[in-house]
Amino acid sequence: MIVRPYQEKGVPASLRLLVPAAIVLVAVYVALPLLMAFDRDFTGASIMRGNPDLNPAQLDFVINATVTYTVVLHALSVVLVIWFVLKALKGRRWARVALTVYLIGATLAGFVSAAAGSEYYWAVISADVIHLVMIAALWLPASARAFFAAHRRRPDVAERVGGPVP
Fold first, then answer.
1. Cys-Cys with 92: which of 78, 87, 123, 163 at CB 3.0–4.6 Å?
2. How many domains, in total, are found in the chain?
């Protein structure tokens, strides 16, 4: 049996779009560090363009540091995207806001990768398009706004425990 988190509580189609978008985004987030790790010449050429004075030992260190940084950053991004999407599909408003803030930050951070060279444009452009699609799905459709508005009211303590507090 396949469990789909968006089958509960009538999640609108626009928000169901978050699931395939997140899957593609995770694939991009995983592909870039893998490419950088397995094609060290690719990574080294990018680094040498910005730092032509590095000797081979320094270049090797910088490649390792860059790949490690990219792996950690993208692994954290994968965890955050999955967690925020799952929580947003349950109607959590904080997850909608947090995912939006994350996506805006990730879009802006993509400019750092783009500045590193045109060989990174495929990752930057594809990720940024997905970021913008996800932001639009979270905020633009009336059905998405209504879904989060319906989850807005939380019962106070008295309602949760079954009666008024004396």
1. 87
2. 1
